[in-house]
TrEMBL record:
The modification N6-acetyllysine is found at K629. InterPro entries: Ac_CoA_lig, ACAS_N, AMP-bd_C, AMP-bd_C_sf, AMP-binding_CS, AMP-dep_synth/lig_dom, ANL_N_sf. This is Acetyl-coenzyme A synthetase. It comes from Xylanimonas allomyrinae. PANTHER family: ACETYL-COENZYME A SYNTHETASE (PTHR24095), ACETYL-COENZYME A SYNTHETASE 1 (PTHR24095:SF14). Residues 41-94 form the Acetyl-coenzyme A synthetase N-terminal domain.
């Protein structure tokens, strides 16, 4: 893209410190390489003719009703148009065309309910249900362009609901089923939705947990008058309050609906969904994605990153309420006609081996999950997965945060038998699909690094003046060329879109994440720019210090923040969760002092004295969003003795009380 003269908004010079030097590499197994779908020439093809490369992917992976003739139109930058004169339908691509190709009996979804019920859904089943649901939505007056909010647990119906919306050209906005009535209300109001699809409840930790009451409450709130109907899936059978005329049972609506439905063919740039970001740093933004480019990159990355084969059984553990669930549960895997797992519940219900049991049962071959889950499994011990046959696994993936090298090595050794490639995939709600990652079967992987842009994607790490940093340097991650699955804006707020992503470095997309390049030019993500600490003029990011702490035997999890300090400007404050017996040791003042000293020395030794935490606070839990990301801004409030800020997107609101109460008794404060 054209890069206008660069401006600097932040005068202070220099990028971020590069502290951690991880040198282990793991080339893929020769047998894996020999059988891989793609080789390194994929990178050459993409760089020889980037737009031609994307046009080829769009033609090969997607079925178009009207073929496109234009690839990228950047004339309204920073809002891109991809494949704009083509028409298609996302649900047709995800379902019908596989049935037409004779693969109707192929399993699309193995569903595992938390209470132990299971269900096998073929592409033919999916086609019938999606067509019925599309007819049902139309019968309720939902048409092309109308917004539908989906507030459901992880059910087959959730996938069907999303696809039914896509089929009629009604953009969906999935709101995570764990969010409160108020979070739901504000999203319904912002999207001006005409329909809400929900369930009576879902199973969570062995008990039915109601959902419908939150919808009822949300709809009494401001800005929700646009909602005409609520469609309710019966999952738990629990008693459910009913508003006659507004509420409709899903099964009733589908039962009377026809199994034939002609997809509504839409332009490539027709909105497919709005999704609110997870809210780690502040007020969630309604990220808008459209159809053709998004679908192309979701399908393409799902295929190349994981080296997808026809007989793979794929399991992405993300909830459909997150972008990962959109791209790697719904649109990527189904567009590729694959088989996948959908699990309703939590990893420890009814026991801590539940995931591994599911992998053994369905011979899962690709597992895609988040570092927070991996650290939890590490905490639970190697003996849990050791009880199951995990030999079907051939590729492992990670997403959501930087994966600490320690957790990466554990994932590979204990889950991957020391042989499976691990793909650490960096991307965002805004990017729509994977952007930076090793490719299974091609890249020699490095624990903790997302490494290289996907073929067809252009990224760089720049300093404050937007100059690329040299190898070994740290700075800010930017995307330097438009990409097919990029957001087309923030719903209803073009100015906020331009301000948030395009004003920091003109002509470059600013991701908001710190990053560095190692000596080979590989990219390492360092944490969010909002979380950078400035200690005596050194700009330190969170990831490396946290990884150094996690690499110590006694630490299960760690989060670091900068707190104002009279002498150094800011000081590093670390919050750590200790492993079992060490937590007991730290319960006495002497024990705690000893542990703190050990951890400080360890950080100094691993990455240098400048990164040594000034204070170490031993805590029982860390505040996380519902997608498992640590909310450091809340910890900063604690470290600076302020009232804790907005915590509405926190998974468990009581965690902050737990943390402050523990510290209030005098523990940890030095
Ligand atoms: P908000 O933007 O509202 O604060 P969020 O950024 O947490 O929410 P997401 O879009 O779900 O919402 O998360 C994207 C962010 O997650 C990235 O910008 C990055 O900080 C982090 N991330 C995702 N994958 C990786 C990865 N593999 N390595 C490092 N960081 C990652
Ligand atoms: Mg973000």
């Amino acid at each position: 893209m054209e890069v206008p003269p660069l401006t600097t908004q932040q005068p202070e010079a220099g990028g971020l410190e590069n502290l951690l030097h991880e040198t282990r590499t793991f080339p893929p197994d020769p047998a894996f390489v020999a059988a891989a779908n793609y080789g390194p020439s994929l990178y050459d093809d993409a760089s020889a003719d980037r737009l031609g490369f994307w046009a080829k992917q769009a033609r090969e992976l997607i079925s178009w009703r009207t073929p496109f003739t234009q690839t990228l139109d950047w004339s309204d930058a920073p809002v891109a148009r991809w494949f704009a004169d083509g028409t298609l339908n996302a649900a047709y691509n995800a379902v019908d065309r596989h049935v037409e190709a004779g693969r109707g009996d192929h399993v699309a979804i193995h569903f595992e309910g938390e209470p132990g019920d299971s269900r096998t859904v073929t592409y033919a089943d999916l086609q019938r249900d999606v067509a019925r649901a599309a007819n049902a939505l139309a019968a309720l007056g939902v048409g092309k362009g109308d917004r539908v909010v989906i507030y459901l647990p992880m059910l087959v119906e959730s996938v069907v609901a999303m696809l039914a919306c896509a089929r009629i050209g009604a953009p969906h906005s999935v709101v995570f089923g764990g969010f409160s009535a108020d979070a739901l209300r504000s999203r319904i109001a912002d999207a001006e939705a005409s329909l809400v699809i929900t369930a009576d409840g879902g199973y969570r930790r062995g008990v039915p947990s109601a959902l419908k009451p939150a919808v009822d409450e949300a709809l009494t709130g401001e800005g929700t008058e646009t909602v005409k109907h609520v469609l309710v899936v019966r999952r738990t059978g629990q008693e459910t309050a009913w508003t006659e005329g507004r509420d409709v049972w899903w099964h009733d609506a589908l039962e009377s609906a026809d199994t034939f439905h002609e997809p509504v063919w839409v332009d490539a740039e027709h909105p497919l969904f709005i999704l609110y970001t997870s809210g780690t740093t502040g007020k969630p933004k309604g990220i808008l994605h459209t159809t053709g480019g998004y679908l192309t990159q979701a399908a393409y990355t799902h295929r190349v990153v994981f080296d997808l084969k026809d007989d793979d059984v794929f399991w992405c553990t993300a909830d459909i309420g997150w972008v990962t669930g959109h791209s790697y549960v719904v649109y990527g895997p189904l567009t590729n006609g694959g088989t996948q797992i959908l699990y309703e519940g939590t990893p420890d219900t009814p026991h801590r081996g539940r995931w591994w049991e599911i992998i053994e049962k369905h011979k899962v071959s690709i597992l895609y999950t988040a570092p927070t889950a991996i650290r939890t499994f590490m905490k639970w011990g190697d003996d849990v997965p050791a009880q199951y046959d995990l030999t079907s696994l051939r590729v492992l993936g990670s997403v959501g945060e930087s994966i600490n090298p320690e957790a990466w090595i554990w994932y590979r050794r204990v889950i991957g038998r020391d042989t499976t490639p691990i793909v650490d995939t960096w991307w965002q709600t805004e990017t729509g699909a994977i952007m930076i990652t090793p490719l299974a079967g091609i890249t020699a992987t490095k624990p903790g690094s997302a490494q290289v842009p996907v073929p067809g994607i252009s990224a760089d790490v720049v300093d404050d003046e937007a100059h690329p940093v040299p190898n070994g340097g740290g700075g800010y991650l930017v995307l330097t060329e438009p990409w097919p699955a990029m957001l087309r804006g923030i719903w209803g707020d073009r100015q906020r879109y331009e301000d948030t992503y395009w004003s920091r470095f003109r002509g470059l997309y600013f991701a908001g994440d710190g990053a560095k390049k190692d000596e080979d030019g590989d990219i390492w993500l360092l944490g969010r720019v909002d979380d950078v600490m400035n200690v005596s003029g050194h700009r330190l990011s969170t990831t490396e210090i946290e990884s150094a702490l996690v690499s110590h035997d006694v630490v299960a999890e760690a989060a670091v923040v900068g707190a104002s300090d009279d002498t150094t400007g800011q000081a590093v404050v670390a919050f750590v969760i200790l492993l079992g017996e060490h937590a007991e040791r730290a319960a006495t003042p002497e024990g705690r002092t000893a542990v703190e000293a050990e951890l400080r020395d360890h950080v100094a030794k691993e990455i240098g004295p400048i990164a040594k935490p000034k204070r170490i606070l031993v805590v029982p839990e860390l505040p996380k969003t519902r997608s498992g990301k640590i909310m450091r801004r809340l910890l900063r409030d604690v470290a600076e003795n302020r009232a804790v800020g907005d915590s509405t997107t926190l998974a468990d609101a009581s965690v902050m009380d737990l943390i402050t109460a523990g510290l209030g008794t005098g523990s940890g404060r030095s």
